[in-house]
Amino acid sequence: MAGAGAGMDGAFYYGGGGGFDDEPALDQNLLPANEGQARAGFKKFVKEFRQGQKFVYRDQLIDNWSRGVYSMTLSVHHLDQFAPALGHALRTQPQRFMSSYEQAMQDVFIELSGLPEPVDGGQVQVDDQGFRRGMPTFQLKLASWENPKLIRELQSEHVERLVVIPGIIVQASIKVHKAFKLRIRCKKCGHSRTLDLKATSRSKTAIPRRCARELSAGPDGEKCGLDPYIIVSEQCQYQDTQTLKIQELPEDVPTGEMPRSIPVHCTRYLTDTVTAGSRVSVVGVFSTEDRNGDKKKDNDGSVKVCYVQALGFMPHGDVTGRGGASGNTLRLSPADEERFTELAKDPEIKEKIFASVAPAIRGSVKDCISDLKIAIACLLFGGAQKTLQDGTRLRGDINVLMLGDPGTAKSQFLKFTEQVAPIAVYTSGKGSSAAGLTAAIIRDADGRFALEGGAMVLADGGVVCIDEFDKMRPDDRVAIHEAMEQQTISIAKAGITTILNTRCSVLAAANPLFGQWMDVADAAEQMDFATTILSRFDLIFLVKDVKDEERDLAIAKHVFEEEEEVTDAPIKVQDLKKYIAFARHRCSPKLTPEAANVLQNHYIQVRQGVSKERREGHSTIPITVRQLEAITRISEAFAKMSLSEWVQVSHVEDAVRLFTLATLDAANRNQMGGGALTDEDRQKVYQVEDAIKRRLQIRGRRPKTALHRELEKDFEPKHVQQAISEFGWGAAWQSVSFQKPCYSVKFWKNKDTPMYDVLETMHGVSSKFMSICSESFCV
């Protein structure tokens, strides 16, 4: 045999010490001879197993009892060390031996506590399951990290075996009280009996339709009739039960496949220990039960429904440093931690991180791609969550909005973030509802209401990526206000009142109101978002498709190099993912007094500038105290990149620069590429547009130079040039569908060379509204 260990009463146990799948064939020689030997062996284990000078489970049992908790958490690995056969029995026949192990826990408790056992007629009273009457019964909870199985990997050979299933809880029902001992009495003759029920079964209880006394009396006895039994509720024994649903982690689902899920039944002290959105590993028994569907489809009862009878929950390691059930499945070895500590000492660590963010996307000095990479790096590292003395919690997660032209790699940034973030959920605004993003109340298979978490709940502790953010309905966007700022979801429906955590960053991508960004219009006019949602984004980037020959050539070369696999990042994706998890867990930087002073002065200056813009009649993106907190979070993210415990002045300066280039630029960008036009100039431009319309008939054509000379007789050249640029120099509008009649105007550089086409309504709508139907191309 592979290994042996001595048990109580001279029993000799043999064990191989293997995992769940090392010994698929059940060898009876590796098991205790009977439940009595298993009970004696486990009693010895609880009393004698120790680490150093501490008796681990003996002390845990008494400590839990003193706090009124009748349970004990067992590491299966410890049981393997002490008596391999007991561990093997627990893996291969858990339903058979779990009751014996819990009886042994009661035996140890009685010996250690010194409480007198209740006796009747000189005999200790024992129920039909072997537990002493009148004494507390303890629940054994298991913990094991060995050989985890994905839900899609569970096969028929795992039925009635102990399994470890990692996943995320997506649904949790209300805790109910279910009878596991049902006391019934005949209403005719008074005969009573007790039925032992399976508390986790969802099938209906089968109560005998004939009285047992009537059957024993024979044909001449008293007739009690059909269905004589009634339930005596006060004499039944109940226990708490709850049904959960666990789903595969997003990173474990193969591309193109649906995530698998399986019901989880838990009882007693395991109820209400996890909520929707918790990332856990369930230790339990893979079991089956009869389906509740149409019996005509399954007359022989051979088709069963699978579920997991939970024996323990293990929250995944909380690398986010925030506490709670949500965490991360990454495991960092001591070698990884040492390597990352040395990496953080590199003076160019921040530049390496920025260069490693979406290396396949190339930027230039004429666009904001490089700054957008810095913003996404800050989002991934995040700030430090704070809890004030009054209990108010300030979020540390950074929210970023990318607003810009189509084809500017916004979706690629979302996909990269989903890939590199320790926890991430990707969704599209067009196909997402308020319930799908937050939480929903549904009915489970038993008809009871259950709570099911949405995308932001499942992304707790990570990042939720929302594409096509502008396609969401306004009502759905309002629903995520609380989730983005307070980072909670409050539910009060169908008798369920609870609060779910949504401690996640939001990275959203959207297009402008008119489809493409227009320099001539105010930024606020092109954002179809309410002030309440915009103020919740720490950084807002206007991503424009800059048309520049030098930039286009550099991007084209970069694309070809990428196809030839020449592109390389300073830090590999997997290492960056681990480094982010390590930094989020280890660092919670604080502001130095000098840095706080710089931040305060900048905030006051920004508020004064926005106030001046509004007094002059310009519409701007609101700048509130939330933006002050945003700069603080960005500064903390910069400090985390180098594993610094303090936010220095340099970190604040970097954060102020990024905030100025992003959000403040979006707030102040107005006319002609960022330069502001006065209201008087804007009216002059509109007058030039009207003059162009009066000079051209439907389908009319005019040489551009001639049109310029004619218009400059009545208007200033800058107003003429701006009006012509609004009409789309070097561009054409195609595939237009209007509800109102429209006409086309063609300008010509000469009689053979078309310059551009314009389609506009006959009702004089300004051309800045016409770009809703534009498709630009160079001529």
UniProtKB/TrEMBL annotation:
Q: Which reaction does it catalyse?
A: ATP + H2O = ADP + phosphate + H(+)
Q: Does the keyword DNA-binding apply?
A: yes
Q: Which GO terms describe its biological process?
A: DNA replication initiation; double-strand break repair via break-induced replication
What the entry lists under InterPro entries is as follows: MCM, MCM5, MCM_CS, MCM_dom, MCM_lid, MCM_N, MCM_OB, NA-bd_OB-fold
In this chain the MCM C-terminal AAA(+) ATPase domain maps to 349-559
Q: Which GO terms of the cellular component aspect does the record hold?
A: MCM complex; nucleus
The molecular function terms of the Gene Ontology recorded here are: 3'-5' DNA helicase activity; ATP binding; ATP hydrolysis activity; DNA replication origin binding; single-stranded DNA binding; single-stranded DNA helicase activity
Please indicate which superkingdom the organism of origin belongs to. Eukaryota
**Where does this chain mainly localize?**
nucleus
Please give the Gene3D superfamilies that the UniProt record associates with this protein.
2.20.28.10, mini-chromosome maintenance (MCM) complex, chain A, domain 1, Nucleic acid-binding proteins, P-loop containing nucleotide triphosphate hydrolases
**UniProt entry tagged with the keyword DNA-binding:** yes
Q: Which UniProt keywords apply?
A: ATP-binding, Cell cycle, DNA replication, DNA-binding, Helicase, Hydrolase, Nucleotide-binding, Nucleus
Q: Please state the Enzyme Commission number of this protein.
A: 3.6.4.12
Location in the cell: Nucleus
Question: What is said about its interaction partners and assembly?
Answer: Component of the MCM2-7 complex.
Q: Which family does it belong to?
A: Belongs to the MCM family.
Q: What does this protein do?
A: Acts as component of the MCM2-7 complex (MCM complex) which is the replicative helicase essential for 'once per cell cycle' DNA replication initiation and elongation in eukaryotic cells. The active ATPase sites in the MCM2-7 ring are formed through the interaction surfaces of two neighboring subunits such that a critical structure of a conserved arginine finger motif is provided in trans relative to the ATP-binding site of the Walker A box of the adjacent subunit. The six ATPase active sites, however, are likely to contribute differentially to the complex helicase activity.
> By what name is this protein known?
DNA replication licensing factor MCM5
Organism expressing this protein natively: Perkinsus marinus (strain ATCC 50983 / TXsc)
